[in-house]
């Protein structure tokens, strides 16, 4: 009996969960993209189901359809990538004979530089942490990990005490797709984390009395800190500064990468510290460095301001 769309989708989702170890949010996005394409096939009378696409024109037409829907280019790329992965999986299992989404042309992605904070803004955030309180000291260590180690917010939330090597100043992070990597702590961060774990963390943990909890960062109730919780902490620090600039955990990761490159670190080292699979992903940070270089050049070099002086 031929496989149905639902069975094919269930097999693929199981593959993403068990073989790729993708997060729940990522899997939901894949599922949504595939089901939206299924609706498209039905509404446009392009094919009777997901497993019976006629030719590559269907894939091309869908790309065009998405473009006419005023979607962001990044959203179009993600949807096509989801479908390409889905049909590649079916092709390898010999459920279909062709993957018509393989190599289909999509709109070019605009080059966007990662958003970063000013150095003065980062300094203000650290200074806004009240080191005399347990939550203030916790927040100080959170900033140190995000900015000083380039952690993703999920890596920060999943960090456990056993992952920290205080002797060698190394933290083992459990990143995307269950891939581990090691990052370095600057000396002051290592000392701050050691002090936090041996004192203030115990005070916070006492609220929940969950002494089996080994996560490093806890919320005010003594439970594991969530990604939403980290965002709220950062936004609260901005308010404490009396400022209104936008902030996200990922922006501090961007600042870490930029600071490393501006400080002379080679691209391969930064790639390893960030956990990027491709060097091209890391290279975007060199553009930020170039922009700052041009800005400094225009301010400092006499001939760069010659035209302005004539006005």
Strand content: under 5%
Mean pLDDT: 90
- DSSP strand tally: 3
Which descriptor suits the 3D outline?
globular
Q: SS-based structural class?
A: mainly alpha
Helix content class: 55-70%
Question: What is the second-level CATH architecture of the largest domain?
Answer: Orthogonal Bundle
CATH class label of the largest domain: Mainly Alpha
The poorly predicted ranges are: none
- What is the fold-level CATH name, i.e. the topology of the largest domain? hpI Integrase, Chain A
Q: Tell me the count of domains.
A: 2
Structural Rg: 24 Å
* Count of DSSP H/I helices: 14
Summarize the structure.
Helices cover 59% and strands 4% of the residues. With 311 residues, it is mainly alpha-helical. Helix 1 (5-18) runs antiparallel to helix 2.
Describe the protein's topology:
Blueprint: H1 5-18, H2 24-43, H3 56-68, H4 73-92, H5 119-128, H6 134-149, H7 153-158, E1 164-165, E2 170-174, E3 180-184, H8 187-198, H9 200-208, H10 227-240, H11 249-262, H12 267-274, H13 279-300, H14 306-310
Antiparallel strand pairs: 1-2, 2-3
Helix pairs in contact: 1-2, 2-4, 6-8, 6-9, 6-11, 11-13, 12-13
